[in-house]
Amino acid sequence: ARPVVAIVGRPNVGKSTVFNRMIGDRLAIVEDRPGVTRDRIYGTSEWNGKPFSVIDTGGIELDGEDMMLKSIRMQAELAIAEADVIVFMCDVKSGLTQSDEEVAQILYRSRKPVIVAVNKVDNMNRMDDIYEFYNVGFGDPIGVSGSHGSGMGDLMDAIVENL
Ligand code: GDP
Ligand code: MG
């Protein structure tokens, strides 16, 4: 079977935007089961000749502070269970937040490789701001812009190196 890459992170960091960039038009399955996994979205991708599946875990996002925390925890657990590589997505505009730390706490327990992608780096002036994300402890953060597509090559390189 193809290796699986899961994108996790709190709501609005740009998971779905980056997911769409990664898969192009190769949307494979939209889960429609009742319950918490309802909107999990799968796609397929390929880089340097290496095929893999991608999960956008953000489909299970729920409203309200409590529910949001619950759902991002669930996503992170899911990613740990199912993925071979985890992309932990953050947002350079908001900087490192308490919710990011919550996700990181769960990912520390994983033995899967975790890549920190810092989204919304829409221009090079923002590049200096990604260094604070070293503090989450998963190595070099990779700056990307889901809107513009910049940094996607670096992210894909890091993913396939860890498959
Ligand atoms: P998700 O909740 O993590 O799946 O995030 P979305 O992909 O739905 O994006 C949340 C919001 O951030 C939307 O308004 C996007 O248009 C915006 N967004 C996503 N990627 C970028 C980016 O690279 N730069 C900027 N400036 N905005 C972005
Ligand atoms: Mg989303």
UniProtKB/TrEMBL annotation:
It comes from the Bacteria. Residues 3-163 form the EngA-type G domain. GTP 1 binds at residues 9-16, 56-60, 119-122. GTPase that plays an essential role in the late steps of ribosome biogenesis. Associates with the 50S ribosomal subunit. Belongs to the TRAFAC class TrmE-Era-EngA-EngB-Septin-like GTPase superfamily. EngA (Der) GTPase family. This is GTPase Der. It comes from Paenibacillus bovis. The chain holds residues 2 to 164 of 440 of the full protein.
